Amino acid sequence: MTEYGQGPGSQPWHPDDPLYGDRDAYGGQPAGYQDGWSAPPQPGEYPHPQQQSYYPQEYYEGTAAYGYGGQQYDPSCGAVGADPYGIPHADPYGMGERPDYYAQQGGYPPPRPQYLREQPEPVPHPHAAPQGAPAAYAAPQDAPYAHPYPYDAPAGPDQGTGWDPGPDQGEHAFFTEGGEDPDRQAFLDDPDDEEPRRRGGRDGTKRKRNGCACLAVTVVLAAGVGTVGYFGYQFYQSHFAPPPDFEGSGKGDVQIDIPDGASLSDMGDVLKREGVVKSSRAFVEAADGNKKAQSIQAGSYVLRKRMSGSSAVGMMLDPSSQNGLIVAEGWRAKKIYAEIDKKLDEPEGTTRKAAKSAKLGLPSWAGGKPEGFLFPSRYSIGKDSKPADVLRTMVKRAEAEYTKTGLEAAAKKTGKTPEQIITIASLIQAEAQQDHEFGKVSRVIYNRLDQGMLLGFDSTINYAKGRSTLNTTVEDTRYSSPYNTYLHKGLPPGPIGNPGHQAIEAALKPTEGNWLYFVTVKPGDTRFTDSKAEHDKNVQDFNAVQRKQKENGG
């Protein structure tokens, strides 16, 4: 015998069983009921005691007796009653022989034992059979646990909690979409909210939530599509589409400053920012198509507003359209004034007067003197330009350079003021001849200042006397001027010219070395030393070269 019933060929069927006589080749068992197992009863039928019971064990716990393969079962002691081998089992409760309820009309299910009837009535299972269902399918009302109804039947209200799970809380309800019962769907939408369980579908809450969810999804999708479209459009415009561009040669004048070291792309950015071209790429593509565009230099240009890229490139390359002024490194203010007068067709001295009276935007530490702050570069002078306007443009270019090099902060690290750095840079610009000499000349200046020595630069005497020459006589060294560094220790009162970028960088970062003297014997032959005797010998070589040049008419 198996754990739950007899195998094939066990005890005969009860004569009152409706299926009596429906046997097959399995030793008296009806077809389909093999090894003590049975299928659920059909409508109008009830389980037979000698069939495997359809109801699970939970239903029978607590009852006095029920059939499992013709046995009686006690939850605490296991199977009792009939034994296929004829061995009677003891009654653990002393209740004596129990009547055969199945032999009586209406004898199933058996009555609840007295010792269990005295217990409080249990709460019916939510899946208990509804009122009015066929008696053969109704779960025993006095069972401590209600049995799940054989089909998907609705349950009544919970006696303990008062909650009615609704007519479709079975397996069918779980797989529905919610259209049949709004209460159930409201519960699924918000299982922690008591009210939506009961009225969620009736007051439109579900529809509102579904609508909000759809709206949120739509907004997210629209935002995603819009973002992808925007960046896709930008990628196409930047890589494949023609660049935005104006048409024609523009109108009106605008002064444009192109900084040193600017690439064509940098120039395009400046022109776009000032409204000259519509896009930087329009200018760059036009420059790429013009072989002469690489010759465009830093400086000031007078252009027009709303020009096409090709027109801007052509105007920057055409000398006839640009009244350009090139200020070389080391030029003194006196020379710059004279060149501006010529370009503007002004009487001599006009620009010099403007420099003294006009507000040029000089740094506060410049002492009100333009010398040293008219930055060397290329400048375009428009037909309507004024001398003061040109000088302001030069000062503006100088300020841009000072910002680029971090002049004020860097000067503080050297122990000098910004004005002193520009003065040192002007000395370097006047004395150095080749690129590798700039840092060394700067070091000689620092070393001499640190040791309290006279600088003794011929360039300072030339500035004081308003001349430019390599020949300095003994009498020149006695010239009375604060700029004469043969007579006065330390730096001159101010810059002696207008230094460029390289000289300013050298003034801030002198080359390491112990040199105290230098002399340019001839072009390309500048000799540095820390020995006075060696320096004197180098000076003699310089004088020999100068005499030879005079003899040759040089």
TrEMBL record:
<dbReference type="InterPro" id="IPR003770">
    <property type="entry name" value="MLTG-like"/>
</dbReference>
<feature type="compositionally biased region" description="Basic and acidic residues">
    <location>
        <begin position="530"/>
        <end position="539"/>
    </location>
</feature>
<dbReference type="GO" id="GO:0009252">
    <property type="term" value="P:peptidoglycan biosynthetic process"/>
</dbReference>
<dbReference type="Pfam" id="PF02618">
    <property type="entry name" value="YceG"/>
</dbReference>
<dbReference type="GO" id="GO:0005886">
    <property type="term" value="C:plasma membrane"/>
</dbReference>
<feature type="compositionally biased region" description="Basic and acidic residues">
    <location>
        <begin position="195"/>
        <end position="204"/>
    </location>
</feature>
<comment type="function">
    <text>Functions as a peptidoglycan terminase that cleaves nascent peptidoglycan strands endolytically to terminate their elongation.</text>
</comment>
<protein>
    <recommendedName>
        <fullName>Endolytic murein transglycosylase</fullName>
        <ecNumber>4.2.2.29</ecNumber>
    </recommendedName>
</protein>
<feature type="transmembrane region" description="Helical">
    <location>
        <begin position="212"/>
        <end position="233"/>
    </location>
</feature>
<keyword id="KW-0472">Membrane</keyword>
<feature type="region of interest" description="Disordered">
    <location>
        <begin position="530"/>
        <end position="554"/>
    </location>
</feature>
<comment type="similarity">
    <text>Belongs to the transglycosylase MltG family.</text>
</comment>
<feature type="site" description="Important for catalytic activity">
    <location>
        <position position="431"/>
    </location>
</feature>
<feature type="region of interest" description="Disordered">
    <location>
        <begin position="1"/>
        <end position="54"/>
    </location>
</feature>
<keyword id="KW-0961">Cell wall biogenesis/degradation</keyword>
<keyword id="KW-1133">Transmembrane helix</keyword>
<keyword id="KW-1003">Cell membrane</keyword>
<feature type="region of interest" description="Disordered">
    <location>
        <begin position="81"/>
        <end position="208"/>
    </location>
</feature>
<keyword id="KW-0812">Transmembrane</keyword>
<dbReference type="GO" id="GO:0071555">
    <property type="term" value="P:cell wall organization"/>
</dbReference>
<dbReference type="GO" id="GO:0008932">
    <property type="term" value="F:lytic endotransglycosylase activity"/>
</dbReference>
<keyword id="KW-0456">Lyase</keyword>
<feature type="compositionally biased region" description="Basic and acidic residues">
    <location>
        <begin position="14"/>
        <end position="25"/>
    </location>
</feature>
<feature type="compositionally biased region" description="Low complexity">
    <location>
        <begin position="128"/>
        <end position="158"/>
    </location>
</feature>
